[in-house]
Amino acid sequence: MVHDGKTLGIANMMIAKGSDRPVYIVTPEASMTITSKSSLLPDQAAEAVMLAHALDKAPKNLRHVPRLLAQSHESRLQSLSAFISAWAGLEILVGATFERYEASWTAAIGSALPQSAQNVADRMRIVMKDKYRLADKFAIMASALDPAGANQDIAIFANLKETRDAFFHKLSSDPAQLPGETTRRLLRKYLSLHLQQI
């Protein structure tokens, strides 16, 4: 069936044996689009412009993070997809920014040590290169970006990682119960804080 050049569905006609009555089988097809528009508040618009400008200057390996954050938000009704996208974004953010925060962290440790221990601090940095766990990297980043809220966020991150590991390694969690919103909130916070530093 076609109306005004648009397909509305399929219509079949059958005539049963021994009857002159036609039987019509109609399978309608339809689609619709819902569009919603909302305006940003002036402070939100200013923040969006600032973040976009900072992201433009950010290293290329960080440019996937906002896409993953948006993807997580778009699929928030599908808990597994939302969680995976947000977690992947968080892992990329931590990995892509760690070198910057590790340098300031080791400098802070070095400045607190007496001169006689500087060689040991330098050696520890060399030994630890590429040996930090993801949770350690997040803790260093969080401590640099939000010293007041870092302890709480480090605990949240540890819980998210435990949930992620339990799900992916043991399949012991219900996908509908994965903490996508909490992961997304943590990613959004630290992406924004990092971009404000650029």
Q: What attributes characterize this protein structure?
A:
single chain; 198 residues; mainly alpha; two-stranded antiparallel ribbon; 7 helices; 4 strands
What does this structure look like?
- The chain has 198 residues and is mostly helical.
- The chain has one domain.
- It has seven helices and four strands, in the order E-E-E-E-H-H-H-H-H-H-H.
- The strands form two sheets. Strands 1-2 form a two-stranded antiparallel sheet.
- A hairpin with a 2-residue loop joins strand 1 and strand 2.
- Helix 2 runs antiparallel to helix 3.
- The chain is elongated.
- The model has no long low-confidence stretch (mean pLDDT 84).
State the strand order across the main sheet.
1-2
Largest sheet entry? 2 strands, antiparallel
- What value does the average pLDDT take? 84
Tell me the β content.
Answer: 5-15%
Rg computed from alpha carbons, rounded to a whole number of angstroms: 27 Å
| Spatial separation of the terminal alpha carbons | 58 Å
Q: What's the number of helices?
A: 7
Element string (H = helix, E = strand): EEEEHHHHHHH
The number of domains is: 1
Please identify the structural class as seen in this structure.
mainly alpha
Number of strands: 4
Q: Label the overall shape.
A: elongated
Estimate the helix proportion, in percent: 55-70%
Question: Low-confidence parts lasting 5 or more residues at pLDDT below 50?
Answer: none
